[in-house]
Write a structure and sequence with these properties.
This protein is about 20% helix and about 20% strand. By secondary structure, it is α+β, with helices and mostly antiparallel strands. It has a single domain, classed as Alpha-Beta Plaits (2-Layer Sandwich), CATH 3.30.70. Strands 7, 8, 9, 10, 11 and 12 form a 6-stranded antiparallel β-sheet that branches. Strands 2-5-1-6 form a 4-stranded antiparallel β-sheet. Strands 3-4 form a two-stranded antiparallel sheet. Strand 9 and strand 10 form a beta hairpin. The longest helix has 14 residues. The chain is globular, with a radius of gyration of 19 Å.
């Protein structure tokens, strides 16, 4: 049985064309957090915490498996950096000015207890395409399968989710030099209509082949980010099991048994990486219920 009724609704909200991603570093010894009044934006935001913070908060605990993101050292010189932070806030909606105002409000609330460490602004590009021109998220689970992939399904953390957040920068010039047929072999899908390549022509180093794994299903909510100087993707994913991220990263970076890496990594590079825990709604309300926030 899935736990959608307990989860933060924003995880599954799909109609926002604008996005803001904020990551904060907190003071040591936080027992609770200010900002309860800003929880009224439920449904248009998702809030998650790193392990260092959940270990210190009084009202929730770290779910088994939660850990800091550590740098990935792959084959062929490929790597993914670790930039672990304490609080992650994802805002989404159709009115960019209102999202910006909410982001400012969170920064003001956290002014005395946290520093804004990273800020990214995302947007829907055309018909939900990545800046490479391919439809993003075609392989996402649908219906109840979304909840099964994204949400912890039992115990005190039921309805919560393990979150992976990464900022990627694309080399669009290099990718654009490839013929469309070759681009499709890099991705593993057709470009116009996002049809997955047939098994007999799917390269084993295609992005789909390295990430669409039956035992590592996750729910992706990525969006394009950046400007014309640093175009890319904010990769955001939710999982019921933290270990699925390890399996996926190993598959992408040539650390799985077959030693093959994701060819897409030739054309895009991660510049950040953090793991978080998005607690269910009740746990979130408890975290922001304290008036006194430090020990």
């Amino acid at each position: 049985m899935h736990q959608a009724g307990r989860s933060q609704a924003g995880i599954f909200q799909q109609d926002g064309r604008h996005h803001v991603f904020l990551e904060f570093d907190c003071l040591d010894g936080m027992r609770g957090l200010p900002g309860r009044q800003l929880l009224t934006h439920e449904g248009s935001q998702v809030i998650a915490f790193g392990k260092r913070l959940t270990d210190s908060l009084e009202s929730i605990s770290s779910p088994p498996g939660l850990r800091d993101f550590t740098a990935v050292k792959g084959t062929s010189g490929l790597s993914a950096p670790a930039t672990q932070h304490d609080i992650f806030i994802w805002l989404q909606g159709n009115e960019r000015d209102e999202l910006f105002a909410t982001a400012l409000a969170w920064c003001e609330v956290f002014g005395l207890i946290a520093d804004l460490a990273a800020e990214n602004h995302g947007f829907v590009f055309r018909d939900s395409r990545d800046l490479t021109g391919f439809v993003d998220g075609s392989g996402n689970p649908k219906g109840d399968a979304r909840m099964e992939a994204a949400l912890i399904n039992a115990g005190e953390h039921a309805g919560g989710s393990f979150v992976l957040a990464q900022r990627w920068v694309h080399d669009l010039a290099a990718f654009g030099k490839l013929q469309v047929a070759e681009q499709e072999h890099v991705i593993g899908r057709t470009k116009p209509d996002s049809v997955e390549l047939a098994p007999h022509i799917m390269p084993r180093d295609a992005h789909v082949a390295r990430t669409d794994l039956p035992d590592a299903k996750i729910y992706r909510r990525s969006t394009p980010v950046g400007g014309v100087r640093d175009p890319g993707l904010f990769f955001l994913a939710f999982s019921a099991d933290a270990d699925r991220y390890r399996v996926l990263l190993e598959s992408m970076y040539g650390l799985a048994e077959d030693g093959c890496h994701d060819r897409l990594l030739v054309y895009t590079t991660p510049i950040s990486g953090s793991f978080y825990y998005a607690p269910p709604v009740a746990g979130l309300a408890a975290v922001f219920g304290a008036d006194t926030c430090t020990g």
